[in-house]
Amino acid sequence: MRLVSVLIFSIVFASLCYAETVPELYGQSYSQEYAGRYDQALESMYLIKNQSDDYMCQLRIGWLLYLSMRYDESVDAYSSAAKFQPDSVEPYIGLIMPLTVQKKWRSVLVAVDNIFKNDPGNYSALGSKAWSLYSLGRYSESASTYKNIIKLYPADIDMQAGLGWALVQDGNKLDAITIFEEILRVSP
Hints:
The protein is mainly alpha-helical. The protein contains 11 helices and no strands.
């Protein structure tokens, strides 16, 4: 029995001596991600989380879970990151991705509102708001949001197309035709 205890202690002590540092684990995680091995990239991040659970760790875990198509877990990780840095916009931008895939449009709008608290003109959030409103059948509000985006980014063809489709769905086909004709003029 004593020999078994000594062996276990030796193995644990040796593993602690050879434990990778947080920067090494991040490096491994990035390498695994670039190779498309998201589960292995997550393993490195979970080892980091055991050492120091913080904003950057949770943010990266959220991203890797999103890439792994584990959307509910991704939402949880991004939400945890937001608790570490409540005034940041990054976790809410990240949160929008799995929520969009899951078509949780009302939750997307909540994330967008959190972004707007600190970055009211955030392009990504504006686009997500417009698309969510469209997806909820709130075409007039969607068109209004697309118009606001186009004021800031007049050459954005995707936002112009979004406006065109929102206008079509809202029953304003003549204005939509004008927009689609202009899109085709510059992007045949």
